[in-house]
Amino acid sequence: MPYVINQNRYSILDRTVETNGALAASNELNKGMITFSPLAKGQLTDRYLNGIPADSRIRTDGRFLHESDLPEAKVEKLRELNELAKKKAVSFPRSRCAGCSTRKALRPF
After folding, report:
1. Is the CB of residue 13 less than 8 Å from the CB of residue 43?
2. CA–CA dist 87, 85 (Å, integer)
3. In principle, which of 34, 40, 45, 92 could form an S-S bond with 11, CB 3.0–4.6 Å?
4. Residue in 23, 1, 2 with CA at minimum distance from that of residue 107
């Protein structure tokens, strides 16, 4: 079966595909890339801006997102991004997904 599309983690917090050759290869081969986790497991939403909710993945499932993934310095940067999105009159998640769609081969999924 021929290669048609690739799915990689990509967000403002994980831009590995920009440096590991995956994005360049997709562009060069005229293939698509679907972004996986464009909201960084919920970190790029307002979910964790004011603490870790009891019903969050961190508290209920811990396999993919951990409290150590959200140090206060990072949360403060996320708050700044959220405020920037508000000034642009868009939701925080929408602003982050829009960043993914500006790349030729990338499309949020």
Report:
1. yes
2. 5
3. 40
4. 23
